[in-house]
Amino acid sequence: DWSSDVCSSDLPRALPEARRAQARPQRSSHHHPGQEQKPDTAFAKKDILEVLFRQFSANGLTLVPRMEIPEFVAWIESADPKMQKELRLTTLTGEDSSTYNFLHPEVQQLIKQVVLEVVERYAHHGSFGGIALKLGANDQLVLKPGNGFNESLIDQFLLQTPNRPVSSKSAAAKRNEIHQSRLAEFGGWKSSKAVEFLAELDRAIQAT
Q1: Which residues, in sequence order, are CB contacts of 205 under 8 Å at separation 6+?
Q2: HSE on the CB side for 141, CA within 13 Å?
Q3: Half-sphere exposure (CA, 13 Å, Cβ side) for 178?
Q4: Block means of pLDDT (10 residues each) for the chain, length 208 residues?
Q5: 97 with 91: CB under 8 angstroms?
Q6: How far apart are the C-alpha atoms of 194 and 200, rounded to whole Å?
Q7: Which residue from 16, 102, 107, 148 lies 20 to 30 Å from 139 (Cα-Cα)?
Q8: What is the pTM of this model?
Q9: Beta bridge mates, 3
């Protein structure tokens, strides 16, 4: 089999659009004299992945859609400002980065929703070869040493490592203390949380 991938960085919006397009009633294709014939926009409303899966199946090929999390997701951007602070990874200086905090339950739910919808819609095709989550490039699923100093993540980390409390009280002081003395441990903890999420996502896919 020959494998290919399709990158769709806007699936959270594209999939609902596809559902709405499929739900619209089909107009008659008959053209009556005197009527203005509107341009055919059916192709623009097609489910492109459905078309590709059918073509690949017909030719005995395998298709693996590659999905990436875009840098702008309308639902996240319209969230409550207080929540929004935690929906992006925070830098050591307390500033929001351009990377979504995929360790946050709401962001994880969004990723899971999109991935499972792709599985439910297309796994019946013989050409369906799985889903590839794109890591890197836009960095949405990459944990960098300088990111992830969100107050909630630090509090979770300290709660789960009670044998090594920090002396600092303020959020900024906690960030600096962890960065100076426990950076490797904190990075390993965040990585383990990412692995837990991906394992949970894999189990959800297998159960679909």
Answers
A1: 115, 116, 119, 131
A2: 16
A3: 33
A4: 39 40 35 46 68 94 85 79 83 85 89 90 93 68 81 91 81 90 92 92 88
A5: yes
A6: 10
A7: 16
A8: 0.70
A9: 62
